[in-house]
Amino acid sequence: MNYETQLVGDVPANMLDEPEERPIWRRRLMIGAVIAIVLIAIATWVSMRGKGAETGTAQVQRPVVTVISPGQSTVSHMINATGSLAARVDMPVGVVGEGGAVTRVLVQPGDWVRAGQVLATVERSVQTEQIRSLAAQVEVNRADAKLAQAQLDRAKALVSRGFISQADIDQRTATRDAANARVNVAIAQLAEQRARTGRLDIRAPAAGLVLTRTVEPGQIVGSGSAVLFRMAKDGEMEMLAQVSEGDLAALRPGNAATVTPVGGTAQFAGRVWQVSPVVDNQSRQGIARIAIPYNPAIRPGGFASAAIVSGTGSAPMLPESAVQSDEKGNYVYVVNGRDEVQRRDVQIGQVTDAGVSILNGLNGNERIVASAGAFLTPGQKVKPEASKSR
Questions:
Q1: pLDDT digits (tens, 9 = 90+) for 192-217
Q2: Could you give the CA distance from residue 83 to residue 289 in angstroms, rounded to a whole number?
Q3: In the CATH hierarchy, which top-level class contains the domain 79-86+233-311?
Q4: Which residues, including other chains, have CB under 8 Å from residue 242's CB and lie 6 or more apart?
């Protein structure tokens, strides 16, 4: 027993503890490994989640835009022009007769008159007395002619009885004929004087609208006087559209036009009735005369703009919201196959309620941003959605 006790007592203390310490270190190693694995898993999960969030954010940040493919539409080719308004047939009215003092003016600018209507009268007291004198002279000559006829009839009754020779009959016949001729001369002179007196009145040469009046009662007028009235025959108006030399060649009589007087929003339908055969050698412009019906808003001498239809053709038609403009000109945004926005310069044509026609820059098959183009930048990625209206 003492021997065994001595052996045991001689064993080192760390040798006696080894069996107990080995499981503790193993557990610590295992716990460390598990913790490391958990940390790696968490890091991987966080990394993957971050990438997914970034991808989702990128998708959310892509703006949704409505796109349209306009195709080709039938549009009218328009020529825009400006010019002045005027009466289609401008009639100046002045003194026809010898003139005199104006006694009455019977019309005002804006009045409608018929052909031959008196516009103003001229004092005629002298002419009236001359008419009376000539009328009396007609009666005198008629009395002389009546007496000559009676003398001729009596002479013829005496020829068969031999009291009057044939030469006397011839003389009395000539006297009767001369008397009748004097009657006709007096009647003609009376008619002439009446016509002269009638010409003292200022009359409308045709039915139409009085445009201006430059005469007042008491004014002395004569054959050399200026124009007293200006009239528009039948009230017809026109626009003298100034058209460039190139556009003038495309116009024909009968082309439809829309005229808009300056200072108003009213538009009037008209039609080209004459295209100038000459071009001004300085301005290189010609005149297209557009006939338009009368309207109080159309004032001769005023200014107006016109849109003249010179023909029809095919072109893409876009809403006005799709067309942008800057210092470089007009443009639209096109979405390419990679859903990227690209700027496309275009030339616009007629602007109507149906939209804007594109003369150059598009073929109609592109995907065009329909609106909100001002908030996009070239190269930006978008999420396109087709318009439901097309």
A1: 888 888 888 899 999 999 999 999 99
A2: 10
A3: mainly beta
A4: 81, 82, 83, 283, 285, 286, 287
Dihedrals φ, ψ of 44, to 5°? -65, -45
CATH 2.40.50.100 domain locations along the chain: 90-123+201-231
CA quadruple 374, 377, 379, 380: dihedral positive or negative?
negative
Which residues make beta-bridge pairs with 324? 331
Q: Which residues contact 287 (CB under 8 A, 6 or more apart)?
A: 83, 240, 241, 242, 243, 275, 276
Asked whether 305 and 82 are in contact (CB, 8 A), the reply is yes
Rounded CA Rg of the chain: 54
Q: Are 132 and 124 in contact (CB under 8 A)?
A: no
Q: Where are the alpha helices (DSSP H) in the chain?
A: 2-10, 13-61, 125-159, 166-198, 245-248
State how far the Cα of 234 lies from the Cα of 209, in Å rounded to an integer: 7
Residues 142-192: tens digit of each pLDDT:
998 999 888 888 888 777 676 777 778 888 889 889 999 999 999 999 998
Alpha carbon distance 10, 53 (integer Å) = 68
Numbered ranges of CATH 1.10.287 in the chain: 125-199
pLDDT score of 286 more than 50: yes
State the Cα–Cα distance between residues 373 and 371, nearest whole angstrom.
Answer: 5
Who contacts 174 (Cβ-Cβ below 8 Å, separation ≥6)? Answer: none
Burial of 370 (0-12, 13-18, 19+ CB in 10 A): buried
Distance CA 179, CA 138 (A): 11
Q: CA-to-CA distance for 10 and 8, rounded, in angstroms? A: 5
Tell me how far apart the alpha carbons of residues 155 and 66 are, in angstroms, rounded to a whole number.
117
Mind listing the pLDDT tens digit for each residue in 293-338? 888 889 999 999 998 988 777 788 888 888 888 888 889 899 888 8
- 125-199 classified as CATH 1.10.150: no
